[in-house]
Design goal:
Blueprint: E1 21-22, E2 28-31, H1 37-45, H2 47-53, H3 59-76, E3 80-85, E4 91-101, E5 106-113, H4 122-137, E6 141-147, H5 151-159, E7 163-174, E8 177-187
Parallel strand pairs: 5-6
Antiparallel strand pairs: 1-2, 2-3, 3-4, 4-5, 6-8, 7-8
Length: about 190
């Protein structure tokens, strides 16, 4: 494994470096670093995360994920990823923007929470902080999709102001087959 710098996403959403975003009650959303690779490997090995996110990753894949998915997409203004960290900078979750269209005022958000962060409102606080930040950027609509079988994610979405708009039939392939997906959205005027 080659030595990599501690990475902070530089780039260009409105010409700015990727910010850290406060998420209330001792949580912060911060850009992923190369040093986070082992936590990513552990996260994507977690059965609950793997069930809904359809992947696992090696250490090298985690480093590439940080470089490519987290940092390059920020610089390209097409998406971004944040680690959700506690006050000791321990990762307890992730929130990401798999879709970001600033000109069209549209984004999609996704998240997961590690076992040590579950049951503490981590997903909801991260989701709300991310959505508020997007609205401050000028995004008009934030979408969230999850399998219709992922009831905890549905509760997080609804509790945090994301209205259920419908079901996309057989929209995403999971390890156990094609799943119908709930589509939730929150609008800036909401």
């Amino acid at each position: 494994m080659s030595a990599l710098p501690v990475a902070v996403a530089r780039g260009s959403v409105n010409g700015q470096a990727q910010p850290s975003i406060p998420a209330g009650e001792h949580l912060t959303l911060r850009p992923f670093r190369y040093a986070d690779a082992e936590v990513l490997v552990r996260a994507y090995a977690d059965p609950a995360i793997q069930r809904w996110h359809r992947r696992s990753m090696t250490h090298d894949e985690a480093l590439e994920w940080v470089r490519g998915r987290a940092h390059a997409r920020w610089a390209e203004e097409t998406g971004a990823e944040w680690a959700v960290v506690d006050r000791a900078d321990r990762i307890v979750g992730r929130v990401g923007l798999p879709v970001l269209h600033l000109r069209e005022g549209l984004s999609e958000v996704g998240y997961w929470v590690l076992p040590e962060g579950r049951g503490r409102g981590v997903a909801g606080r991260a989701l709300t902080a991310m959505t508020d930040w997007l609205f401050a950027l000028g995004v008009h609509r934030v979408e969230l999709m999850h399998s219709v079988h992922n009831e905890p994610s549905c509760r997080v979405a609804e509790k945090n102001g994301f209205e259920l708009e419908g079901t996309r039939r057989s929209a995403l392939l999971h390890p156990d087959g094609w799943h119908d997906m709930h589509l939730h959205a929150r609008l800036a005027p909401d």
